[in-house]
Amino acid sequence: MASNLEQMSVLKRIPFPGHMIKPRWKYTGVTSLSELQVKTYLIQHPKVFENFVLESIPESKLEELLQLKRDRPNIAAIGEQSIALQSLYLKDRVKEIAEVLTTSYNEKDQQRRMVETTHVLGRAINANDFAFYVPTHNETMLSLYQNGELVPCGPVGKNLTVAAHAVLEKKTIVVRDLQMDSRFPKGISPKRMKDCSVLCVPVVLPSADTVGVMEFTRDQLKQPFSDADVQVTNAVVSWMAACIHENGLKRILDTQHELNEFLLEITKGLFKDITCADKVAKTILHFTKDLLDADRCSMYVIDEEQSKSYIAYEDTGTKGADGEEVYKKRKVHDLQIEDKIAWEVIEKGKVINIYNAYDDARFDKETDKKSGYYTKHILCMPIHHKDQIFGVTKIVNCLHHDHFTKADEEYFSLFSDYCALALHYSRIYSLLYQQQTIYKVAVDVLQYHIVCAEEEVLSLQQKPYIENEAIPDTFFSPDFYAYYHVESLPRLFIYIASDLFGEDTFEMEKLCRFILTVRKNYRPVTYHNWEHGFHVAHALWQMIKANEDIFTKFEKMALIIGGICHDLDHRGYNNDFFQKLNLPLASLYSTSVMEQHHYKQTITILHTDGQDIFSFLNGSQYKEMLELLRNHIIATDLALYFPNQKEASKRLEEGTFDLNDKTARACCKALMMTAADLCAVAKPWDTQIETVDRLYNEFYQQGDEEKKQGLTPIPMMDRENSKDQPKQQIGFINFICIPLYNTLSQIIDGVEPYVEGCLMNREKWTEKCEQEC
């Protein structure tokens, strides 16, 4: 046998072009002995091997072999691996094995199964050694699986190791001669073996995620890996990838079952007590964190009331006394500035998956500084159904992996449909609840208001125009006082309309019915009544007459109609009253409660048959008219006066106020509406006194009602402070009225009488204050 071994020589070919892919090993002499037979003989007759080494192998070669042995990782040869590690495949029932493989949801369990399979494959293809790697850091780094732990061993890419190249290319790589292959200068990490053949197979899922890499090596004593070896390995690895993918699908199905339960719970809740959007949002966030095993999760939902605004639900990372996660709710007006990542997802409708947030320019590092939290991974995905986007979910810091995978994206994509449906149904029920509120308000209005009597319409229609001698002398000045001419007011309004728009613009029957219905829709409160509405329309008419060429016909119409209708169905209480007592109107409108109601009431009248005075307009013109009406009526909310005053004053000081500018023009008309609404403050002293009495009568009624409800009214509405009326009026004139009229007088003509009236009445109130003191 010794002679046979002596006849066996290993001749290494010199690498020439075209020879690189040929076998490096050539056997001479006896060809009837297989490599396995030789190895078996040497294992059974170790003395023969020892004699051969001592007699035939030079000392330098022995030292070289010992060094190679030391450089190899501390992994036993494949034939010596612990049988316990591969015990799964020793079961005699394939069904039991399949059940274990298809229920390994945990990532570590799956890695252990892949290592076991690598052991078995290594033996099957007669490899000398093997290694199993796991791609990390979003498949940019590679780690070696050793004793259940991942040991970092370098980046993924070309011109590195064989495994690093396989992950990048996502395909099987066969290296017949590692030492002669220039593509892999770093060989096989962490081993320093060069004189070997390598078979490297990445485990790539249908989702394109690479979950592992199997690397097999054969030393120089064996033939390089053949096509048959590749075939066996690819067959096993392909089934393994399919199995892991099946695990993911099963996880999705299990999640889907939970989601069905979730939707069922929401449906029950909706029918039980109309679930609010906040509860739905928090439930979605809870399920999202659980589904993707994330540390934190936040969401931006598009605000239904203001399409450019968002409702943010932020994960605080804390739990309440009830053990539930605490989410902070707030309104976001500019998402692009607040969160560039979320804004980009909503704008483009695409997923953003960030491995390292601090390497991404879109991430705002200041948020971590303020909160003390460290953000590493971000998965930001839209919540949409078909073409409708409801919001965006921002999932932070993956707990089961070093980044969010494509599989995580797929899981949430399925979940996103359920989220969208849940939010959609929540909105539907919210809309139904709003419709119920609208119905309650409508019933309340209808119980009080009735359409004007037909005989009143016929009477006015027969004689719509007032005779010149019947027109009050003060009608053509700001001093006009409607309470002295109540019966003539409908005809005086027709006079204003005819004076500005001619007698043929409006159908007379419709105009008569409209103005009488408007009069009927004012409640008999002491101040915010029909006469006050007429005062506002009259003041606007005076201002328009003094500036004939500034405003368009549409603007003039919207100002006059907006003025006469601006306080329709006023109940004698201010906006705060409805909000404090949480009355239906406050639930219906979040801001400018009464003003929005006045506008809705105006639209209701205009949409009523026989009172649609704008029927001569086409569709686009009518839409424009309603928008102007809304802007003018809403502008009478005194809370909006201050920003309008500030904007106008700033432009006037800078010399940039231009009525041809859209913003400046809107600002001017808003100030005109406020000036007309407060015109009583500039009327003669005798009517000023009477008007203030009417106003305080309403104030004190509201104060009394608030006291009944256990609230404390503001001093102006507390009748116990009636002695302070002069001081309060002086403050009102100084703080609001004089700045208003002074500013407006710099923009349009015809405002000076109001400035003078304010100053005169302030002097009277000052005298009265001094007398009482």
Structure description:
The chain is an alpha+beta fold and 773 residues long. 52% of the residues lie in helices and 12% in strands. It has helices at residues 2-7, 35-44, 46-56, 59-71, 94-101, 107-124, 162-169, 227-273, 277-292, 335-338, 340-348, 366-371, 406-448, 454-462, 489-501, 508-520, 530-545, 553-565, 575-580, 584-588, 593-606, 619-634, 638-654, 662-677, 685-708, 725-745, 752-772; strands spanning 129-136, 141-146, 149-155, 173-175, 196-204, 210-219, 294-302, 310-319, 325-332, 352-354, 378-385, 388-398. A 6-stranded antiparallel beta sheet has the order 3-2-1-6-5-4, sandwiched between helices. α6 (107-124) runs antiparallel to α8 and α26 packs antiparallel against α27 (752-772). The N and C termini lie far apart (134 Å). Mean pLDDT is 84; it is low at 1-30, 73-86 and 269-274.
Q: Can you summarize this structure?
A:
By secondary structure, the chain is α+β, with helices and mostly antiparallel strands. It has 27 helices and 12 strands.
Q: How would you summarize the topology of this molecule?
A:
Elements: H1 2-7, H2 35-44, H3 46-56, H4 59-71, H5 94-101, H6 107-124, E1 129-136, E2 141-146, E3 149-155, H7 162-169, E4 173-175, E5 196-204, E6 210-219, H8 227-273, H9 277-292, E7 294-302, E8 310-319, E9 325-332, H10 335-338, H11 340-348, E10 352-354, H12 366-371, E11 378-385, E12 388-398, H13 406-448, H14 454-462, H15 489-501, H16 508-520, H17 530-545, H18 553-565, H19 575-580, H20 584-588, H21 593-606, H22 619-634, H23 638-654, H24 662-677, H25 685-708, H26 725-745, H27 752-772
Antiparallel strand pairs: 1-2, 1-6, 2-3, 4-5, 5-6, 7-8, 7-12, 8-9, 10-11, 11-12
Helix pairs in contact: 2-3, 6-8, 8-9, 8-13, 9-13, 14-16, 15-17, 17-18, 17-24, 18-22, 21-22, 23-24, 24-26, 26-27
